[in-house]
């Protein structure tokens, strides 16, 4: 099954596509977010349809010590709920702690200039990879 990974942000929404069979995920693109929830959900649903994705994984910003990260987490949860309502598809939330730091380290290690790197789509990829790995490990038990 194909899954769309989402790094939801108030200015940008990173997207990635992954496969449950292979456990692999790849960056797709980043959408602008103008704060209009209905428009954002519609654009993400359209991207999922064009990529033949049947489910979604939305990054959930949690505090380093656990628990959600306040307003940002509430926005991600509202986005996930609206996406589920519009599409009827499964929408999972995945811990995205330290995703930005990991993505920045990957960019620097690869020697890619910040201006040439789609940080949001890369973050969506990391979120989706985390979900797929956790899912594989729970299925192996």
What does this structure look like?
The chain has 141 residues and is of the alpha/beta class. It has one domain: Nucleotidyltransferase, domain 5 (2-Layer Sandwich), CATH 3.30.420. Helices cover 46% and strands 25% of the residues. The chain has helices at residues 37-50, 71-87, 99-110, 119-140, and strands at 2-8, 12-19, 25-32, 55-60, 90-95. It has a 5-stranded mixed sheet, with helices on both faces. The radius of gyration is 14 Å and the shape is globular. It starts with a strand and ends with a helix.
Brief summary:
The chain has 141 residues and is of the alpha/beta class. Helices cover 46% and strands 25% of the residues.
**CATH superfamily, please?**
YqgF/RNase H-like domain
**Major sheet description:** 5 strands, mixed
List the domain count as a whole number: 1
Total DSSP E strands = 5
Helix amount: 40-55%
- Quickly count the helices: 4
* Overall CATH class: Alpha Beta
What's the CATH architecture? 2-Layer Sandwich
User: Assembly state here?
Assistant: single chain
Estimated radius of gyration: 14 Å
